[in-house]
Amino acid sequence: MIRFFNTFSGSLEEFRPIREGEVRLYTCGPTVYDYPHIGNYRAYIFEDLLKRFLLMAGFKVIHVMNITDVDDKTIKGASREGVSLQEYTARYIEAFFEDLKTLRIMPADIYPRATQHIPDMVRMIKGLLEKGFAYYRDGSVYFSIEKFPAYGRLAKINLEELKAGARIDSDEYEKESVHDFALWKKAREGEPFWETELGAGRPGWHIECSAMSTRYLGPSLDIHCGGIDNIFPHHENEIAQSEAYYGQKFVNYWLHCHHLVVDGEKMSKSRGNFYTLRDLLARGLDPVDLRFFLLSTHYRKMLNFTFDSLDQARASRQRILDFVYELEHRTFGPGSEPEIQALVDRVLTDFREGLSDDLNISAALAALFEFIREINFRLSRDLVKREDAGRVLQAVHELDRVLAILPDKTEEALPPDILEKIERRQKARKEKNFALADAIREELRQRGIILEDTREGVRWKRIK
RNA sequence: GGCGCGGUACCCAAGCGGCUAAGGGAGAGGUCUGCAAAACCUCGAUUCGUCGGUUCGAGUCCGACCCGCGCCUCCA
């Protein structure tokens, strides 16, 4: 049984998709006004884990992730640089896709862009006006939350309290109630706008997601994800718009990922603890280590990023990599041991069961590490045979469909002159010319290559 | 003020009513080795922020308190 914590109900629920064997997944994507920071990627990696797990569990997954390419920030950015909105956002969209690849995040099936779905938004806004959920004010259209009594259920906020805590709103737009939100913003001097039946203007942020999610996934989705900060008001507003328009349940399972903080504090540029993926890559960090770090803490728990904790994650991942390396490079005697098959079966089961329990990655990884220890113990006593080794490797690769942390097959080879030096050193060692051997080892170390003499021969590693 | 999260070994982190409190990192000891490095093995909490309570039995439920953090405004 698969269970997820549903923000809407505030409890763990058994997961059952609307259509058997198929999951319609919507995840809030980036607003492309800047390079995403590592906190953004925590959310995307959580969603990647979710998706890969669903795929492993045998579901077909239809995944839509929006790209917000028009909003206050993108408009401001473009105008600051004196370039078109499109020109401005194109650079960040490209960077975003590059980063996804770098972090081995599986691509979504569709990446709808707000600017390419204006008609869908207009259609919804018109419908909301007709049904009385929205009103015009000074050329803009607002959603009236009073007309939607269920407003606040996701975020567990009640309207009375909202009103009581309301302060003078600094929004330049006029509206009936401070908490009503804009569906359509009237065109303003110097800002991009679309000529539509609603008048000249541009969409509000929330309607973008409602229009694009339902456009591709239908009025009811199985899972909708985002960071916890999206719960209110963004997701609350999405529910209001979508359910008011379609008259049916918008989302069955709301999954929200907690924040990443840096050195125990919220990331911010002013605090100087703000990192983009590119910042970290520039420091020589292996992006897959970052992936593993972001992956290895439960998604509903606040994650504290420090360079020390990243280093711990790197070491932890290395244990898995060393294990695979050993299995791939050692020579085994023929045959198999029944015990190994039992261990293989167990790790596969326990790993999946761990993830089935609201993506309990700690439990899943514990199963993997326990497996590694059991097999290593047997390796150290030559109790693993050729067929066993194959099965063990296959199992680890199966789990890596979800983790995606094993090295690429196309690991870059060493240049010939270095290979030649390694050989020369081996020869020197055989001849007990250790002075030469050590000199070569030191020389290669200077060049960033570490040599290790193992029972099975020389192993080399690059140092970052 | 309102809503919410967390406090488990030196660090990270599962467990959320009942077997010896997972797992990883660091550390210590050992195996291997020309040396080194790496790898591997073994060992590390009579105890779960504090104080009360419920229970045959509590990190696990209830209450109070103490710390740390987040959201309530754009935000993953």
Structural class: alpha/beta
Q: From the 3D structure, determine the CATH topology of the largest domain.
A: Rossmann fold
Whole-number mean pLDDT: 90
Largest sheet: 5 strands, antiparallel
- Roughly how many Å is the radius of gyration? 27 Å
State the gist of this model.
The chain has 464 residues and is α/β, with parallel strands linked by helices. It has helices at residues 38-56, 72-81, 85-102, 118-130, 159-164, 205-217, 231-246, 277-282, 287-295, 307-329, 338-356, 361-380, 386-403, 416-430, 434-446, and strands at residues 3-6, 11-14, 22-27, 60-65, 134-137, 140-143, 181-186, 194-196, 199-203, 221-227, 251-257, 260-262, 265-266, 303-305, 449-454, 457-462. The strands form 5 sheets. The chain has a 5-stranded antiparallel sheet with strand order 5-6-7-9-8.
Topology:
Elements: E1 3-6, E2 11-14, E3 22-27, H1 38-56, E4 60-65, H2 72-81, H3 85-102, H4 118-130, E5 134-137, E6 140-143, H5 159-164, E7 181-186, E8 194-196, E9 199-203, H6 205-217, E10 221-227, H7 231-246, E11 251-257, E12 260-262, E13 265-266, H8 277-282, H9 287-295, E14 303-305, H10 307-329, H11 338-356, H12 361-380, H13 386-403, H14 416-430, H15 434-446, E15 449-454, E16 457-462
Parallel strand pairs: 3-4, 3-10, 10-11, 12-14
Antiparallel strand pairs: 1-2, 5-6, 6-7, 7-9, 8-9, 12-13, 15-16
Helix pairs in contact: 2-3, 4-6, 4-7, 6-7, 9-10, 11-12, 11-13, 14-15
This protein binds one RNA strand of 76 nucleotides through helix 1, helix 5, strand 10, helix 7 and strand 13.
